[in-house]
Amino acid sequence: MSTALNLDLQLRPLTAADNSAIAGVIREVSAEFGLTADRGYTVADPNLDHLYELYSQPDSAYWVVELDGRVIGGGGIAPLQCSTEAICELQKMYFLPAARGLGLARTLALKAMEYAREHGYQRCYLETTASLTRAIRLYEQLGFEHIDSAMGCTGHVDCEVRMLKTL
């Protein structure tokens, strides 16, 4: 992947060797926005240091963005837990400042939704928080609609923004 800035960017599937790097990205971005573990955000996820193993499960995938060989962001798709419908969840979309404003989150989200459609999902759910205004705008532009009630059992009790998209 190249941009007008001629950056050496790569969007690729997560590998086991990326576990520490993407966990670091998630922790750094979470701290930047005050998304603390005690409030149920992703940094509280016991699988945070083992995302490769988590997203190696059936009908799940995670991608990372590399800049000059350094992981600077990522995002994934997985079945919505505790749901009997064909609903997936867009998960753990985090990008360091170096990755922002380049269209990488959009590219990754579109790739994730394409993957979801190919794996038989009919709808895509996500949870976020109101302080992530740029992310919310992106999701709205991608066709996600705000919904009132939480779906599934994500454990993200302080994610007050819930959105759903028909695939």
TrEMBL record:
A Pfam match: Acetyltransf_1
Species annotation: Izhakiella australiensis
Signal peptide: none
Sequence ranges assigned to domain N-acetyltransferase in this UniProt record: 9-167
InterPro entries per the UniProt record, alphabetical: Acyl_CoA_acyltransferase, GNAT_dom, NAT_camello-type
UniProt keyword list: Transferase
Keyword flag Transferase: yes
Protein name: GNAT family N-acetyltransferase
Single Gene Ontology MF annotation: N-acetyltransferase activity
SUPFAM superfamilies xrefs: Acyl-CoA N-acyltransferases (Nat)
Keyword Isomerase: no
Alphabetical list of Gene3D superfamilies matching this protein: 3.40.630.30
Annotated PANTHER family: GNAT FAMILY N-ACETYLTRANSFERASE (PTHR13947), LD18367P (PTHR13947:SF37)
